[in-house]
Amino acid sequence: MTRPTKEVYHSSQIQGLSRLEPRESTHGCWLHATRDIALAAAFLGTVGGDFTCAVGRDSKSGKPYICERFEGALDLRYEGVSGSIYVLPGEMFIGGQTPWDEEVVSSVSVAPIRETRIDDAKAFLMVLAEEGALTIKAFPDRIDGIPEDDSDLVQRAVIWHERFGDRILERVKEYHPHLLDRIRMAIENTQ
Q1: Centroid of chain to Cα 121
Q2: CA–CA separation, 57 and 47 (whole Å)
Q3: What global pTM score does this model have?
Q4: pLDDT tens-digit map of 51-84
Q5: Mind giving me the DSSP string for 53-85?
Q6: Rounded CA separation 187/180 (Å)
């Protein structure tokens, strides 16, 4: 359990919040944040989640990245999406509570220190990329060990199918229909 830096960042499509509240998620009831504004910005758009764009930190460059999982995924997830990035007091957050090292969490509501309003998430992300704070990989390019055969998405879909049921298969059908048979076979092999 580690305490983060002085300030952390939380993104939301809701602007003008005076308090941010913990919400129930797959890892408990937490208010999620990151130590890096570029990673927070990557969560302004949520359409399709990991099935549209992978988000992480490149082990070679140390930079946050967004990697498209199919052509046009960046536009689908971020173009025209408005929201805010909230700067929050880091002492209210701890690390090591979720599987993702980049994430820090708080179990209590937090008042923002300041807010940056974003009119278009894609445009904001492109500026971060131009400034060198973020790497954006357009499909079919890959980064940081994302496998060419999309086996990571198959694995993720199997895990999420256990938690959320067949609605995950609908999402796969929408974004990666070519993976549907592999995922169904993998699900059958785990039962």
Answers
A1: 13
A2: 20
A3: 0.91
A4: 999 999 999 999 999 999 999 999 999 999 999 9
A5: EEEEE-TTT--EEEEESSTTHHHHHHTT--EEE
A6: 10
pLDDT, tens digit, 9 for 90 and up, residues 163-188: 889 999 999 999 999 999 999 999 99
Label residue 113 left, alpha or beta by phi (over 0 means left) and psi (-120 to 50 means alpha).
Answer: alpha
pLDDT in tens, 4-30: 569 999 999 999 999 999 998 777 899
pLDDT grade, residue 3 (50/70/90)?
Answer: low
* Nearest to 189, CA basis, from 149, 153, 162, 150: 162
Amino acid sitting at position 160 = W
- The interaxial angle of helices 151-164 and 167-175, nearest 10 deg, is 150
CA–CA gap between residue 50 and residue 69 (Å, rounded): 8
Alpha helices in the chain (DSSP H): 37-41, 73-78, 121-130, 151-164, 167-175, 180-190
Concatenated DSSP letters for 116-130?
EEES-HHHHHHHHHH
> CA-to-CA distance for 147 and 143, rounded, in angstroms?
9
Could you give the CA distance from residue 79 to residue 84 in angstroms, rounded to a whole number?
15
| Residue with the two structure tokens 């995950």 | 168
Determine the Cα–Cα distance for residues 55 and 101; give it in Å rounded to an integer.
Answer: 12
Asked if 118 and 45 touch (Cβ cutoff 8 Å), the reply is: no
